[in-house]
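Data availability (excerpt). The following record was deposited with the supplementary files.
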Amino acid sequence: MNQIVESNDHIVQDKWNKVEEIKAMGIEPFGRKYIKLNMVEDIINSEVEFDKDPENYNETFQTAGRIMAFRPAGKNAVFGHIEDQTGRIQFYIRKDVVGDESFEVMSKIGTGDFIGIKGGVFKTGKGEFTLRATDFEFLSKNIKPLPDKFHGLTDVETRYRQRYVDLIMNREVKDTFIKRTKIISHIRNILTQKDFLEVETPMMHPIVGGASARPFVTHHNTLDMQLYLRIAPELYLKRLIVGGFDKVFEINRNFRNEGISTRHNPEFTMMELYQAYADFEDMMDITEEIITSCAKEVLGTTDVVYNGKELKLEGFKRIHMVDIVKEVTGVDFWPEMSVEAAKELAKANEVHLAPHMDTVGHIINEFFEQKCEDTIVQPTFVMGHPVEISPLAKRTKDDGRFTDRFELFIDAREYGNAFSELNDPADQKGRFEEQVAEATKGNEEANAVIDEDYINALEYGLPPTGGLGIGIDRLVMLLTGAPSIRDVIMFPQMRKK
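Predicted structure:
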């Protein structure tokens, strides 16, 4: 025996022994191609007449999957369940149907193994939908025993570190990721039907930009230059609008070198889109359409219970940031005031300010984040962010202290960010310079380098443009009831053991 036995556990040893016995029968224990004609779900949903006599089957199916349960029914028959990504079905194999030689293989088979089955369907006396084999084929041996079927795989650390076992044992986990795929596909369909062009932009950037966040840093040896994993694709997507595309979008990963929590993972999926000749109000409309439509597509309803709260995912509220601050705290920031006066209000209301927060705009935003954000339950577009915290957004026409920007909040969590894009190259350069100044004051999320090429692109001309970003992971959490972002990312980042 030339296999490496990774464990002294008798179960593992017994499985390796079975491998040798299967080989001795002339069968490959880790097999090759099998023609799978039917998914389990298709068999279950098929409209066939049931008959226990295989001679009377009017349709034959051929499927394959992992054995999730296995039990002898006397010496000459076995029952079991196989599962694929679409569902689970009972199977029934009789010695007098498949033949002595084939049935002998059943003594080497167990839970966790893969088999292919061909046969018809019937219902047992208890009404269980069952595939009765006229032929079967052994496909691959399982070596590591699956977790106890009664207790399952419940340890969270193990579930995230060994997602493959989690997917095997917990059907609801598989269903979550199937829904994730459907959500992303549906968003893609919505946008392509609106004539948006799906594009790809660089993952490695020579300059950090497009958002306020700490980047991951890497180095390219041949070019001998420092590069950053992108924190956002925004500036490259807007370069495409400059280049003459009217509507573009990208669904891809962003990377931010920040904390890990139930809401944050260092790499996460974003959908960003940009539309020429549009503004932030158009972005509100398309944001609501995407989320409402996804809910109907995946759940069949816009009424969702998440985190113990009943949510209505349509008819989103719209409110200015200054208005919600006044509504929640009673503090009115509409009248212009000095920084000193704003700081006094912050002190009186126990709003903490970091050293670099030395403008009224910063203080308004801190009032919102610390006092108001947690009060939002139903979907709400919070508009009018101060210009100091919105370096890429167009100023509001009638009040240059604020911008044509919104963030979408549902149950105190941000799901989207959008604005009318700043297309004045002089104003944009000034905003970048303010970001550099903030970085020198200790704001680690501020961009410390000006992207001169982006300014150059704006000087060629960016039409009026609306831009939007939606966090895919959080949207999937919302529509699947997942409490943690790790539940909707296949392989979340984990600490070393």
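Summary of structural features: Residues 176 and 480 are 6 Å apart (CA to CA).
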